[in-house]
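Re: beginner question about structure tokens

> Can someone show what the tokenized structure looks like for a real chain? I only ever see the sequence side.

Sure, here's an example I had lying around. Input first:
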Amino acid sequence: MKNQWSDDDAGMFLKRYGRRFGKDLAIRTYSSRLLGLETALVLHGGGNTSVKTTARDVFAEKRNVLYVKASGVDLRDIGPEGHTGLDLAYLLRFHQLRELPDETLINEFRTHLLDAGAATPSLETLMHAFIPYKYVDHTHPEAFLALTNLRGGRRRVVEFFGDRLTVIPYMTPGFALAQAVFGAFRRNPAADGLLILHHGLVTWGKTAAESYGKTIEIVSAAERLIRRNSHKRRPRPSRVSFEEARERYTSVAPMLRGVLAVPSGDMDRPFENVILRPLITREVLDFLSSRGARERVLSPPLTTDYLVRTKAYPMWLELPEGPAGKIEDVLLDAIEKYARQYIQYLSRHAAKMEEGLDVFDSRPRVIFIPGVGGVCAGRDARAAGIALDITEQSVRVKSRIADMGVYQGLAEPDLFAMEYRAYQHAKVGTAADPFLSRRVALVTGAAGAIGYGICRRLLEAGCHVAATDLSGKALSSMGEELSASYPGKLLTISMDVTDAESVKRGFGSAILEWGGVDLVIVNAGLAHVATLSELRPGDFRRLERVNAEGTLNVLTAAGNHFRIQKTGGDIVLISTKNVFAPGASFGAYSATKAAAHQLARIASLELAGIGVRVNMVAPDAVFSEGARKSGLWQEVGPARMRARGLDEKGLEAYYCERNLLKSRVTAGHVAAAVLFLARRETPTTGATIPVDGGLPDATPR
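And the corresponding structure tokens:
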């Protein structure tokens, strides 16, 4: 591992943060980020760092303070506010106590913050306070997770490092661990660091560079120890190619996502869905095909720090060859077996459950499938992605352990103590809209004004959005713009609705990314201006292919997908007021959109039995959404303006004046109607919501 410290970079942090937050915290921020950038040291909110410094109170008197990383904050992008300040003198008094429960400890932390509004500090705050050095770093290096989960690993570490590294047994993080660390430090104050078995490494220094440098040096030495003990055995290569594994996953993911969904008891929102993220790499495929893979996979986790993300154990699933129905039966049996085992695990430790703590559902968070890879589930893409990174690390480290000897993880009571701990559960939090944040929407015609508006509103509501359109600048630019604001929630897919295979591939891309689709917005459409006497058959067929056949292709793919996934779903067709009030010189558009509208109505009849609702939104003219011009109105607008002797603003005003409310219809209005239907606010299917400001002749009847 390379020391990445740069005095120039440290100086930049001093310049950026020093004046407002002080030199010590500015440099603390820099070295914390260096640690966070090394995934072999910490993952997703893991680890914690601190600095001891001084601050003036309201009486202008200097006080000794401890700034320690707030719980759940990620070191990778931590800012100065990510370290919470506490009264250090008060924290040091805790030496006098013998025990202290979590809830009391957290309350004491919060009543001695420098800022009453600051985030709750790490549960390991006292460990940082008790070590009498200015800077303290605590990480979870992969190298030490490998060595301390190896049978006989502690002996090898002690022999290799000697007095340079103090080693203590695993203890549940909190007050007792802090006291144990302090005692170990006093017994060997000349050590460069301290190792907590099955947990992590603690280093310290008078400067941030010194503490950080010790971490890098000690971890590098641990990596040399691993190389010295490695037998250099290579796992048997899997016979399944990367492409085959992806195809298998895409075919099975909707079924798997369906059986992982938890029934809610709510008829309108019958399932709490999960988002899936696949872990398909050459290393994982080879790992799963190696001898003893099942036993290694089902062994205890590397450390307890991530259990609220992954649960104590994953699930092993071997898929049979044969029809989809047979595969689904195997899936259901495997999930039911896992659920029974998880309930038994809970019952074995029920007496130790903290009062008032919610119990996790009994479904697995991580599933290993030979010939496919790993599958990680979460309430949204971020949660599933965190589980994926942890799982990838687990495979990597367990492979290294297998190359050295026998895996020996923590005992089950230690696992339960961290999985069911209120402080850990607080890291998971809750979603703003728990229904939509668990759902995946596929939007056609996403690069136009209405499509863009729908995508943006769905993303704002927490939905995962697969934005599909013909490839080109319009699609790529909307993807770049929205991805910047909603990272991990938007996927752009090049898809041609007139090509059934392209539509199938588009759904496959969404499945590969998030496991399935729950909401389909049929928005792609073309317009053409010509009187019936001037309308050429070729132009009519061009619109018919997109507006009618394209709708049919998407409805077919959606219906097939929903039948496999078995959690219901929603389809919303962006129709038009022209279905009910067609315009002159607009025959091709009005007729083909009417066909699409009728197909959607028929779909509402055919798909209701599998819990799928199909509704329509019928807007009047939408000219643009921000800088994005409506493709339809780029086609139609010029002729309409010429016919009425108006410019663009004048034409917009004309359309406002013709409706009862004198309203300008925007893409945001259309998106709001879509959102109403997507949220299932009412038990509605086969309905049309006019979004036109009130056009009496266009009222559905």
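Each token stands for a local structural state, so reading them left to right follows the chain. Residues 537-565 form the longest helix (29 residues).
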